[in-house]
Design goal:
By secondary structure, this protein is α+β, with helices and mostly antiparallel strands. It has helices spanning 2-28, 77-84, 144-148, and strands at residues 34-39, 46-51, 58-65, 69-71, 89-93, 98-105, 118-127, 138-143. The strands form two sheets. Strands 1-2-6-4 form a four-stranded antiparallel sheet. Strands 5-3-7-8 form a four-stranded antiparallel sheet.
């Protein structure tokens, strides 16, 4: 009888650990958007492309590093002016929607030698049904040379 009770305890603890792992995955990572640097077919410039792969809306905010790089919500003048004024690029993505965020460097004179070093974009996101839960950001890293390369 003692062995049976120990077996039930062992099975119960394993099920509890698996349930906790699934809950953590469901709350923190499931539905995580996909983000990558792409070439815009319209403007022929580099953009940060973000795709919502979940079945619910998500709120997305782009944080570039270094601060000299900016991300705008679109190519219109107001969005570009907001990016230049350090207003974060924030938008809501519908399920399965893909959005291109134009990226550019502020304050660089054309013809000036390129600075070396990485450029990183952190895509912070929240599920629309659980905005209070912190989500693991998606990080995209590239080089300054790649962003300025003509294609």
């Amino acid at each position: 009888m003692g062995d049976f009770i120990e077996t039930v305890k062992l099975v119960g603890s394993i099920v509890g650990l698996l349930t906790g792992a699934f809950t953590a995955w469901d709350w923190l990572v499931r539905g995580r958007p996909i983000a990558f640097i792409a070439l815009s077919p319209v403007s022929r410039k580099r953009v940060l492309r973000v795709k919502n792969v979940s079945q619910i809306e998500i709120l997305v905010r782009i944080v570039p590093k270094p601060k000299s790089y900016k991300a705008a919500t679109s190519n219109d003048a107001r969005a570009m002016a907001n990016a230049m004024a350090d207003v974060a690029a924030v938008t809501i993505l519908a399920p399965e929607e893909t959005v291109d965020f134009p990226i550019f460097e502020r304050g660089r004179v054309p013809g000036e030698p390129l600075k070396r070093g990485p450029v990183r974009f952190a895509v912070h996101w929240r599920k629309s049904n659980r905005t209070w839960v912190w989500q693991l950001p998606v990080r995209v890293s590239t080089s300054r040379r790649y962003l300025d390369r003509p294609d």
